[in-house]
Structures are given as C-alpha cells and as structure tokens.
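WARN no homologs supplied; continuing
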Amino acid sequence: MSLATSVRAECPAKVNLFLEIKGRRDDGFHEIETVFQEIRLCDSLTIAPAAAGIGITVSGADLPEGRGNLVIRAAQLYLDRFGGARGLRIRLVKRIPLMAGLGGGSSDAAATLMALRDLLHPEMPAAKLSRIAEDLGSDVPFFLEGGTAHATGRGEQIRAMEPRDPFWMTLAFPPFGLSTAEVYGAVEIPLEEDRKTPEMLFHALLTGGDPGTALFNRLQAAAVRTEPKVGEFRADLGRLLEQGEHALLSGSGSTFFIPAKDVTRATELAKAVTAGGIGRALAVRTV
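OK structure emitted
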C-alpha cells in the first residue's frame, strides 16, 4: 500500500496533582494511586511512511536513536502488531525537559501510537492501542486519554475524571534532573493507616476550588533524600510564594509546579524564579 501523507501530533506534558505509594509489587513496580493532569507544554512529532526502516530526527534534546528511544519502540511495536507500512520517518521536536517528572517520553510514545493509527488504520478503535501502551510504560496509557485522570495499579489503570475549568500554574525547573529509578528506590512506603487519599483533591477539581491544600506527592521526600539540592530548590521557591500558594514536585521530579489564581500571577512568579537565578520557569495552563 502506498501512503503519501504524513501526520503531525502534539505531545502534552503532565503533572501529578496527587501521588501516593501503596506498596511494592511482585513485578518490581510500585503500587500507586495518582491524579494525572495534562498541561499545555508540548513536544511535537511528524510521522510519514518510508521505503524501509524507522528513522528519527530529534531536535531540542539529546536522545538515543535505537530501541532506547521510546518513540522508536512505540513505532516498532505498532508495526509489528498492525503493519501498514514498510518503514517510517519521524521528526520529534522536544520542549518537555528530560528527567523532569513531566512524562515527556511517555507522551511522545502515546502520540506515536495515535499518529500511526490515524495515518495507517484510521478506522481502528483507539482501545486497541491500550496493550501496546502498557508494554511501553506505566504513564503511557494515560496519554492515550489525556485531560485529568485518577490512576491506580502501577499507573496504567485509568479512570477519566469529569473536566473542570482549566487553571494556570507555574512550572519551575531546577538546573538538574532526577533518576526515576533512584527516587522510587528511596521512597519510604507508608503504613496503611498513614496513607493519603485524594478525596479532598477530587472535591476541589470537581467544584472548581483551589487544589493547593489537597496537593500531595509521597515521592517528594524521597527525591530530597536522593538529591539534597531538591530541598534547597524547594526552599528557594518558598521564599517567592504568596500566602496560600503551594509548590509540589511532579512525579519523581525534578520539576515543581505551583497552581496560580490566574495567568497574571503564574507569569509573575515564573519571571521571579528566572530573575532570581533559581532556575527556569514558565506559566502554563491545564488541558
């Protein structure tokens, strides 16, 4: 079959508004409960059929070009399962920082699956992508759905949440990244009676209330144990926050996010972080 068209896709980042660790699993992963929130910071990719092989060009970051690249893995798994093309040429533009807890690689992989479905098998139900997504990584199934979602298991069991009005936040990037494996390795699993639950956050999200006091991430303390500079960065941010504002680590870090009352405050805080030499920052809106 000859395919002359190409498909372009956006790959949004995410933050974890809530993340609790419930235990260790027999498969080596952790049992978690989390609330994912997609945000308008996006990578982008373009995919076109080719005569043979899977080639990728990446700008904006240094990424591996073989099976270590999640986009290539996603594309190869798709072709192995569904076929439709002898080869592919992929262009990936990275804007989501690496080792930042924002799910950039997982989002890129999910967007690859969906773009290939649109390009090669447009009538195929998106649900058929779920098994490949789970094989690629714990966060990948979420990005097939996007928006706001409650996730359990190792993060792959997704329950979409009712949409609420978008809100603004400031993303603050320290000048270092964190290893997901190292942060999870340092986590102290709470006793069952000490576990946090996301009910307060659900209420805030569903009613349009301030999510600040309901934000939680069990990995934040583990990240500080792994890299003390995380605590120093959080303290520097704290000196810039107004009363009622809260900064939380996203996922395993190293990015912090601060929900804001409006775009003006989100932008003001981002400028203060940058001007203060603490790190990079930008204002983004939720999806």
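The chain has two domains: 7-160, 168-285.
OK
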